[in-house]
Amino acid sequence: MRGFGVYPDHRMFPFVLKACAFLKNLRLGESIHGCIIRLGLDFDLFTGNALLNMYAKFRSIEVNGGCKVFTFNMLDGMPKSDELCKRLAQEKGKSVIQLDSVTKVFKMMQKRDVVSWNTVIAGNAQNGMYEEALRMVREMGNANVKPDSFTLSSVLPIFAEYVDVMKGKEIHGYAIRHRFDSDWYIGSSLIDMYANCAQIEDSCRVFNLLPQRDDISWNSIIAGCVQNGMFDEGLKLFRQMLMAKVKPREVSFSSIMPACAYLTTLHLGKQLHGYIIRGGFDGNVFIASSLVDMYAKCGNIKAARWVFDHMEHRDMVSWTAIIMGHAMHGHAHDALSLFKQMEMDGVKPNYISFIAVFTACSHAGLTDEAWRYFNSMSQNHGITPGLEHYAAMADLLGRAGKLEEAYEFISSMHITPTGSIWSTLLSACRVHKNLELAEKVVKEIFKVDPQNVGAYILMSNIYAAARRWKDAAKMRIFMKKKGIRKEPACSWIEVKNSIHTFISGDKSHPLYNRIYKALKDLLEQIEREGYIPDTSEVFHDVEEEQKKYLLFSHSERLALAFGIISTPAGTTIRITKNIRVCVDCHTAIKFMSKIVQREIIVRDNSRFHHFKDGKLRVQSYMQFFTLVSMGEDCSENLW
User: Fold this and answer.
1) What whole-number percentage of the chain has pLDDT above 70?
2) What is the bridge-based pairing of β-strands 600-603 and 573-577?
3) Which are the contacts of 600, defined by CB distance < 8 A and separation ≥ 6?
4) What are the b/e assignments for 131-148, b being 16+ CB within 10 Å?
């Protein structure tokens, strides 16, 4: 067109600028901008809005010494207003800040409409410049330009990021008064904002009041429920979305997979995996990483590894998921080998990656290896150790019997130790029968966490093991007076798409009589195989037969017996427990796996335990420590 001597007008440039943004060609866009200036069309409203949109999409922010430097300088030669120069002068001790092209174009526009304001506000919000975005909203109001639904949907994520629910509610009120609340984008933004502020009930209320729901609003409420621990509700909403004929997107699966992982619903996870394959989403790295995590947490590490090995592209999240999965299943050397392979592939480890590494080292007793990784974390990777890293190292030292070294390590932390970190050492004191250090440690725990239930229970058991019955009784009486109660031991198992839950000594299950008979028969058979009940960890003054009954009725045994009578022979049984498996149950299940000829996988709050043919399939060098170290006193139903 230019070759024929035809000059473009103000109606042509918005389309050309949009094409530049689509092609991600900044240099061409700046050339077009120069042409617009030379033709004197830069004062046209629609052309100005098109320029704002293009530069907003190209914006690149680089952080230098705490100072934001905007890389585009198309208009740097233009004179700056006094107000802008004054603002620059206030930046003491910092590099000169170049105003980005979006702001410059906006300042040069003689006429602005709501689109102009929205473009600048959205650009600031999307680039993390929240204060600037909010300032522009206030200026917008002062300029007598009314915010529309796009303005509100740009601002709401800011309050979600700041977790400022009161300001978010003000925007919600404005949306209701101006009848924007029925807008899909506003509704989804409100759902996200309330969910991020832990007000999930309000999120559900907003969702239920939407006259129409699109895939964005469905995904927002599902993700909100899962993020706030409402896993069952998240799965229920996912099913409702499918029934409403709303097609799931990639983000749908990434949102719902953590619910399957937490609830260990392997059957549903497999169904979702099939849907993902049929929908052609299995090549998505985020979904594949979620699948790896789900299979690992549901006890099927082989499936997790298969998904990982077949991933075309792997990022830091997928590597961390498979490393943590192997660590949780006791495959320490596999986990460390994968970590080294990740580094060789040029993927930089992150905060979570090192937690997985320390977990693996802990299960394998690799103290020297763990110290090497701990030091390299900050020296070579620039990652400052956090509470989780300190807790893992303290746990490792405690397992190795280096109690004094663990005490000094925790005491010298650069951040204040929490009660949970001290509790790892208290657990080690119990295993290694160091009463003197235990009393010292428990004082530190109660300084920072006086309501720490596990500490009271551990200390009571430590006193009982030392035959100091009065001190043990004092601990329990003090707990009762303070209203401190131990979390009931609970185990659950998935059978025929339903979750069945058991607590210790529970007789409420409809099939209890059959469960009791199956357990009794199993007990007789494993006793003939050489099983002897270990009542040494039952710290109550009751008869020996009563101690054996307490062990007999532990929740994981009830779940196991139910699994045996409810599934075909040869089916793998997967059980989840909310606290650690006790020593005696561990021994008993090992014998039972031989009797029933089944693979039995038990996931507790520490790791996975695999049993087959009367053997523990992955034997940790300190398996005993893992079982007895955290609060499981083999009398769970008396607390």
Assistant:
1) 86
2) parallel
3) 560, 572, 573, 575, 589, 592, 593, 610, 611, 612
4) ebbbebbeebeeeebebb
d(CA 75, CA 99): 9
548 contacts 533 by C-beta, under 8 angstroms? yes
pLDDT at 551: 77
State the pLDDT confidence band at 310, using cuts at 50, 70 and 90. Answer: very high
Q: How far apart are CA 395 and CA 521, in angstroms?
A: 39
* Euclidean distance between CA atoms 43 and 473, whole angstroms: 83
Is 285 in contact with 314 (CB distance < 8 Å)? yes
CA distance 198 to 224: 9
pLDDT at residue 633, rounded to an integer: 44
What's the token pair of residue 538?
A: 């039952």
Distance CA 80, CA 88 (A): 10
pLDDT at 408: 95
- Backbone dihedral region for residue 336 (phi beyond 0: left; psi -120 to 50: alpha; all else: beta): alpha
pLDDT tens sequence across 544-553: 666 676 778 8
Query: At residue 452, does pLDDT exceed 50?
Result: yes
Q: pLDDT at position 431, please? A: 87
pLDDT of res. 6:
64
Pairwise pLDDT comparison (20 vs 567), residue with the higher score: 567
Give how far Cα 321 sits from Cα of 272, 297, 328, Å: 18, 10, 10
Q: What is the mean pLDDT of the chain?
A: 83
Question: CA angle, 637 as apex, 632 and 639 as ends, to 5°?
Answer: 75
Q: What angle do CA 38, 43, 47 make, to 5 degrees?
A: 90
276 Cβ contact partners less than 8 Å away, ≥ 6 residues apart: 253, 282, 287, 291
Return the closest-CA partner of residue 626 out of 395, 358, 324: 395
Q: What is the mean pLDDT of residues 202-214?
A: 92
* Cβ atoms 319, 353 nearer than 8 A: yes
Residue 53 φ/ψ, nearest 5 degrees = -65, -40
Amino acid at 481: K
Q: Which residues make Cβ contacts (< 8 Å) with residue 411, sequence separation at least 6?
A: 417
- C-alpha to C-alpha distance for 100 and 90, rounded to whole angstroms: 18
SS3 489: coil
Tokens of 408: 């000094």
How many CB atoms lie under 10 A from the CB of residue 408? 11
Q: Which of 53-62, 207-216, 404-413 has the lowest mean pLDDT?
A: 53-62
What's the confidence (pLDDT) of residue 388?
92
164 Cβ neighbours under 8 A, 6+ residues apart: 197
Between the alpha carbon of residue 85 and those of residues 80, 82, 516, 594, the distances in Å are: 6, 5, 82, 80
